[in-house]
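Hi everyone,

Forwarding the result from last night's run.
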Amino acid sequence: MRLIKNKTSINFLGEARRRIALFLSIIMVSISISSIFIKGMEFGIDFTGGVLLEVGYPEPANLSKIRTLLENDGFEEVQVQSFGSDEDVLLRLPPQSDQDPNFIRDRLRNLLASDEPNVVLRRVEFVGPQVGEDLTEQGGLAMIFALMMIFAYVMFRFQWKFAAGAVCALLHDVIITVGFFSLFGFEFDLTVVAAVLAVIGYSLNDTVVAFDRIRENFIKLRGVASHEAMNISINEMLARTIITGVTTLVVLIALLTLGGESVRPFSIALIVGIIIGTYSSIYTAGAIALVLNVNTKDLLPPEKDPELIDDLP
């Protein structure tokens, strides 16, 4: 079954649209970087360290009362927020390095039970500050290493101009996805790092498939301008791109709405990343390659020197 029955001829990478797309990407990346450095990230307990408790109440919880109760008992800088429904509450405390984790858990449970005997302690997580710092460093190194390996792979498979376009597109996707979390204050934890790495894989696959078709058309359509050959290739891949993106988004939206609060950041990161990744595969990767003046000669094998041929025995 064909999603798009008629052959399309959309001018994706015409000079005017290419400039608009690059300008839009620069704006989005600039806003994301500014938010990351000025507003900062709402790091989860995986990175900051501390104590995380999920508790359930039989009726809507009074958050201000719970916060006051904990502060009066010596728990400073505690964060109390609803977690899904009004009956579910998430408590976040800074690292308690001088106390045993089991003692902290029992103390908090007894303290909450003194106010509401039917409170249920559903989840407890303890992460030390050193572990949080190590996870932050390792997560950043994982992304840098992935991008370096991707550049080497695309350069080996295609040509360095395509590799530069692919890596710029991936950096574009990562920065905007992370910036989205910073801008809107969503929690950034290890599940989001996993989602960002998945976005890198998704976007790279989309870009490599497009580059494969572009390489075929560059050689087949010799004499055609580079941006025209790219437009033809993208139009030929348009149905596949739409089907892949829409089916993936349907699954992620179901996961976001039905999966609960624990997978919400993961789902949001993938949804944002796939939308931005599809956009960058069409515009950013190809546009960067065109800025670097990619053409058919870059994909042809080097010509042999006739003088060297004559000197052969």
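The chain is about 65% helix and 10% strand.

Cheers,
N.
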